[in-house]
Amino acid sequence: MAGRLLEICIDSVASALAAQAGGADRVELCDNLVEGGTTPSYGMIKAVRSQISIGLMVMIRPRGGDFLYSPEEFQIMKSDIEMTKDLGADGVVFGLLNPDGTIDKTRTQELIELSRPMQVTFHRAFDMVKDGQQALEDLIEIGCDRVLTSGLHPDVISGQEIIKQMMQQADGRIAILCGGGVRLDNIQSFVQYTNAPEIHGSGRKIVHSQMTFQNDHIAMGAIPNSEYITKVADEETVRKFRELID
């Protein structure tokens, strides 16, 4: 199958431009990728939208941690969806669960309706559910467009059998976006085995700080010396992803 859709996960304007130049069809814009992604700022969404012409999906996640949100957090998600819509994004990405590991259908459906006419992807909160088959039916029932998944496993390779089953179950009723552990050395065998139509990856490289003075005795976050490196989508890696999946 040629013409697979390639989505690149990004957290900066530089990554957005590299993804577009490398041949990505769409980006998923996040902040705080160390915790799996949270909602990016107004300024970041505006800047990325002004710099790229490919599809822009925006993460709506008020914090790291689980996907069981308080009423206050739910209100924040609604406000962030309105902001994202006003800024011209093509879609939003979110996921809400109940305490028992089922899809929070009521509040997810409310957010889906609020998001229109934007596209909606239910993110990898799906991989934390108790029953994947039922969860997929629930998302179809409430009108979700797409689910991002690694097949309820840590990565797409270990979850590829479940992904194949999910595609058969979905039968065109919802798009299956495959992501989690996608690398240049495994993507070709994965798409050959599953025939997955949509692929989600990051394709990042490490970029070292240009600071000539570096204080290595103090850390601003939990990861030592992380102030002096960033990870940015690499245009050439994205281009290789594009070639391999096509």
Can you walk me through this structure?
The protein has eight helices and ten strands. With 246 residues, the protein is an alpha/beta fold. Strands 1-2-3-4-5-6-7-8 form an eight-stranded parallel beta barrel, surrounded by six helices. A two-stranded antiparallel sheet has the order 9-10. α1 runs parallel beside α8 and α3 runs parallel beside α4. The radius of gyration is 18 Å and the shape is globular.
- Estimate the global geometry from the Cα principal axes: globular
Order of helices and strands: EHEHEHEHEHEHEHEEEH
CATH overall fold name: TIM Barrel
CATH superfamily: Copper homeostasis (CutC) domain
Number of helices: 8
The CATH architecture classification is Alpha-Beta Barrel
Q: Give me the Rg, rounded.
A: 18 Å
Distance between the termini: 7 Å
Would you identify the regions where 5 or more consecutive residues have pLDDT less than 50?
A: none
Strand content: 15-25%
Write down how many β-strands occur, each being a DSSP E stretch of 2 or more residues: 10
Number of domains: 1
Mean pLDDT score, rounded?
A: 96
Structural class: alpha/beta
Question: Which class in CATH terms?
Answer: Alpha Beta
* Largest sheet geometry: 8 strands, parallel, barrel
